[in-house]
Design a protein that fits this description.
heterodimer, A: alpha/beta, Rossmann fold, four-stranded parallel sheet, 9 helices, globular, B: mainly alpha, ABC transporter involved in vitamin B12 uptake, BtuC, 2 domains, 20 helices, 78% helix
């Protein structure tokens, strides 16, 4: 048989986060060219659009995004780029958490993510449905590549399964541990590794907690013996240090996204880092 | 038990009050209101540059960078002064008695200051005021010392007025430019730096509740040093701020901006720009309103700062609010209160002089507001009429009178259901919290049941609230003309009657 001389053109993909970028790269291999539209450090809620992003959006054949209300800047960017890529909302395949907020909340408490918590990529199991959606979206543009995409995905999932077993083993001794979180970032991660989140220090990121909230939190942590505070790099350090000093708890800085820490080089390394940090801190 | 959480923040606030109320008087006299924001931003830029140079954001090196940039900013402001503020050269500068005069002023000046409060502080009034001053005060230069803010302004514009030639720049323009450029460059650098952006942001936001004992001790020590320096050099520094001629003005300006930058960048780390700005400006403004001498203004400023700190932190505890933002809001409320009291005092004096006619302007204002509220109700019954909401909360009959018997029954039922539902929600939420914290054990399926039940209850209560909103909308439809039009007419009558009072 003759091998076709024409090499299939690569599919150009824009992902809104580095985590999705890694998953797309894992599935697409060298048949896709994918870039993240955001830096993991930047505040996802208040970002200015770069010209590079617009160029990327305009060139993209497929757009992969977190969905829900995670990318409030995206509609504006799409309009500005006058781009209409094939749209993949990765949250479609996910069983979301924190959606139990009633459609009409009786007490109009601020709720950051009204459509459910958006940090679902922090449960490694969710990589399964997300990569399945990615295979379909890529194959819709590059039908000849479907076989490659499926094979790539299976290889990726085999690696994931092997590591997942290791991560679970590492955290099994701490099952049921009660933790306080700085922000509402970790419900998916906590559920997967059997941690119980009992309270949030800063319910609305950027709005410092009131003295009463902080006082009640400290008192509760003392009586319940909560020893760990899960934070991310953007967490309010001074307040967390105060809570830690008052309660004797330890602040454990986990990495919420690929690239937010030099060690978190790809999607699987992200969990390697987080599981190791958590196990080390809880062991002490 | 949670009160002790507020002890360190309160101490920090009192330390801030001590130095900022004083520096605020300088800032106000110089007319450089936003210089603190600019210097804080310059310090943040310095810290960003430190990141770029490879230092960790909380290292001493980063602090040194921030300090270095602050020094550069101080130098810049000292250098730009010469071209912006002008001090007439022909005026004698009785430097020696400046501070003494200001501090132990004879009590006879009281009548003057009282006199000044009674009037709007327009340029005309000031000059009139100056005319009926006692004869001993007619020396121009002495006169100027008494009013820092005014004399500074007069100076600048006075220098402009005649044959001064080239137009002068307000230093505030330079300050604004420095702020904007420093902030923009910080954004540009942060875009390139992988780590530390959050710390830079926190540098400007601060965290009053996160303050530690070391922070307070360090701040108190530093500000005591700065305060001592300012006390030792009070003559040149005060004269300079009040717009007088001082030998080596540039050097003294540099000293001022340097110490100021040091204070501001240290305070901002703890309290954030909003709070620091409030501590700087609000006490100084109230002091300037209420007193004539630096010493008294400072005393008033300190009182204002202490009151706002205590009241703000107390309110944030009682009403469960973020601490820093509450203190800033209390500062605003205090300022509004003092402004209102001054207006009231002016009104009372005018009433003594002119009788009821003095109230005419107020009457016109009230009448117009009432008329507009009535018209708005008639024109847009479904818009938000906050005054009517508040009125109906106090006197439910105002709404009930516009409902049918059946609607009133529904209203009562919905209210009872809401009261019952919120009580139950509170209890269940407490139970859920107890389970989460491990005070109480509940099997997994019971937990799920509790979660589902909470969500359902929540929705039921919200539904009852919607019922109330619907009933209110119906009542509004009927209040529209019965209530709105008479109010509009009544307001118009009040306004017109008062207007005649003005004419007479």
């Amino acid at each position: 048989m003759l091998t076709p001389l024409l090499v299939a053109a690569t599919v150009i993909v824009a992902a809104t986060t580095t985590d999705l970028r890694d998953l797309v790269a894992a599935v697409g291999g060298d048949r896709v060219s994918v870039e993240s539209l955001t830096e993991p450090r930047a505040d996802p809620h208040a970002r200015e659009i770069h010209p590079r992003q617009l160029a990327r959006l305009r060139a993209a054949q497929v757009l992969v995004r977190i969905g829900l209300d995670h990318e409030s800047w995206l509609p504006r960017a799409l309009r500005a780029a006058r781009a209409t890529p094939r749209d993949l909302d990765a949250s479609r395949g996910i069983a979301l958490l924190d959606t139990e907020t009633a459609r009409l909340s009786a007490d109009r408490r601020p709720h950051v993510h009204a459509f459910g918590n958006t940090h679902y990529w922090l449960d490694p199991e969710n990589a399964r449905p997300i990569t399945a959606l990615i295979v379909d979206a890529l194959a819709a543009v590059d039908s000849a590549g479907r076989g490659v995409f499926v094979a790539n995905r299976e290889r990726f999932l085999r690696d994931l399964d092997a590591r997942l077993a290791r991560w679970r083993r590492a955290l099994r001794p701490y099952a049921g541990t009660r933790v306080v979180v700085a922000h509402d970032t970790w419900p998916y991660f906590a559920r997967r590794f059997d941690l119980t989140i009992v309270a949030t220090v800063e319910e609305q990121p950027g709005v410092p907690p009131s003295p009463r909230h902080l006082g009640a939190l400290i008192a509760q942590m003392k009586t319940s013996g909560v020893r760990a505070i899960l934070a991310e790099p953007g967490a309010p350090t001074a307040v967390l240090a105060r809570v830690a000093a008052e309660t004797g708890a330890r602040v454990i800085t986990l990495v919420p996204s690929v690239g937010a820490d030099p060690e978190a080089t790809d999607y699987l390394a992200l969990f390697d880092v987080n599981v190791r940090r958590l196990a080390d801190a809880l062991a002490r | 038990m949670t009160w002790d959480l507020l002890l360190l923040p309160l101490l920090a606030c009192l330390v801030l009050t001590g130095i900022h109320a004083y520096l605020g008087l300088h800032v106000l006299a110089r007319g450089v209101i936003f210089v603190d924001l600019a210097l804080a931003q310059v310090a943040a830029l310095g810290m960003t540059a430190a990141l770029l140079a490879g230092h960790a954001p909380e290292s001493n090196a980063a602090y040194a960078w921030a300090l270095g940039f602050t020094v550069l900013g101080a130098l810049l402001f000292a250098l730009t002064r010469e071209n912006t503020t002008r001090t007439p050269k022909d005026r004698p500068a009785p430097r020696n008695d400046v501070t003494r005069d200001r501090e132990d002023r004879p009590a006879t000046r009281n009548d003057v200051s009282r006199d000044r409060e009674d009037r709007p502080a327009t340029r005309n009034d000031v000059s009139r005021d100056r005319e009926d001053r006692p004869a001993t005060r007619n020396d121009v230069s002495r006169d100027r010392e008494d009013r820092p803010g005014e004399s500074g302004a007069r100076n600048r514009w006075g220098g402009l007025g005649g044959a001064a030639g080239a137009p002068q720049l307000h230093q505030e323009a330079i300050i604004g430019i420095v702020y904007a450029v420093a902030a923009a460059v910080t954004v540009l650098v942060l875009d390139r730096v992988a780590q530390g952006g959050e710390q830079i942001k926190q540098l400007l936001v601060g965290s009053l509740l996160g303050v530690t004992r070391d922070d307070v001790v360090r701040l108190a020590g530093l500000y005591a040093l700065v305060g001592a320096l300012h006390w030792l050099c009070r003559r040149p520094l005060l004269s300079l701020s009040l717009g007088d001629d001082v030998r080596g003005a540039r050097a003294w300006d540099f000293v001022f901006y340097l110490t100021f930058g040091l204070v501001v960048t240290s305070s901002v780390r703890i309290a954030g720009v909003l709070l620091v700005f409030s501590y700087l400006i609000v006490p100084a403004v109230i002091g300037t309103w209420l007193a004539d001498t630096i010493a008294r203004r400072l005393a008033i400023g300190w009182t204002v700062g202490v009151v706002a700190s205590v009241a703000g932190l107390g309110a944030s505890f009682v009403w469960d609010l973020p601490a820093g933002a509450t203190v800033v809001a209390v500062f605003g409320a205090l300022l509004a209160l003092v402004a209102f009291a001054r207006a009231l005092a002016r009104l009372v004096t005018r009433m003594r002089r002119d009788g009821r006619r003095a109230l005419a302007g107020v009457g016109v204002g009230i009448g117009v507001v009432i008329a507009l509220a009535g018209l708005a109700l008639a024109a847009l019954p479904h818009a938000d009429h906050l005054w009517l909401d508040a009125l109906e909360r106090g006197i439910p009959r105002i709404q009930l009178a516009f409902l049918s018997d059946r609607e009133r029954r529904v209203d009562a039922e919905a209210r009872a259901a809401i009261a019952h539902g919120t009580g139950e929600l509170a209890k269940l939420r407490a139970l859920a919290a107890d389970v989460r914290w491990g005070h109480r054990d509940l099997p997994a399926e019971e937990r799920e049941r509790l979660r589902q039940f909470l969500a359902g209850r929540d929705e039921l209560v919200a539904g009852d609230r919607l019922v109330l909103a619907t009933l209110r909308a119906r009542a509004r439809e009927r209040q529209r003309f019965v209530l709105g039009l008479p109010l509009a007419v009544a307001g118009a009558v009040v306004a017109l009657a008062s207007l005649r009072g003005v004419r007479h």
